[in-house]
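re: ur question from earlier - yeah i can do the single chain one, its not a big deal. heres the input i used so u can compare w yours
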Amino acid sequence: MRIILLGSPGSGKGTQAQFITEKYAIPQISTGDMLRAAVREGTPLGLEAKKVMDAGGLVSDDIILGLIKERIAQEDCANGFLLDGFPRTIAQAEGLQNMGVEIDHVIEIAVDDEEIIKRMSGRRVHPGSGRTYHVEYNPPKQEGIDDVTGEPLIQRDDDKEETVRKRLSVYHEQTKPLVGYYSDPAQPAKFDSIAGVGPVSEITAKVFAILG
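and the output i got, formated as tokens:
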């Protein structure tokens, strides 16, 4: 069960990834976590990545692909894995394929941009505890105030509308083309797209129905 989840920021990918990894007992492979681990362990690729990151550069596709290859050779990936946040571009997807990494399922969780903006820009956080609210879907008892402590809530910079719009435009430019790439019948992986709106449990049920 080798899976790629696609979806814009705020589409609920992370939530579904947790359910998938639990149900199928496969690891979630996040490129960020993998990079940090390689740097921490001082592996040859980790040292190479650290040099680039220390210089403020972006780690190359080759390094990331090398890390993925090393990671999926580990024992816990024997039953499969879920790639999180990778591939982000067509070049990375081609790199995976050229490296002989087989993917069984690609699932897109599709959510309209305006819905994402509403979801993310409506989030409010209590900095002390990390408790989150939503102005529309899960409002605090008193506007702008944490239910438990009575302290003010904040909107994270990441959740501000202009930041969300910027992240969405990067997604459409770089990652959305993967939907076309993976839905091509010539691709060996099975591609499905599901709407990421409605109760979380319904979306999970659709995902599990696809994965079987």
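The mean pLDDT is 93. not sure if urs matches, ping me
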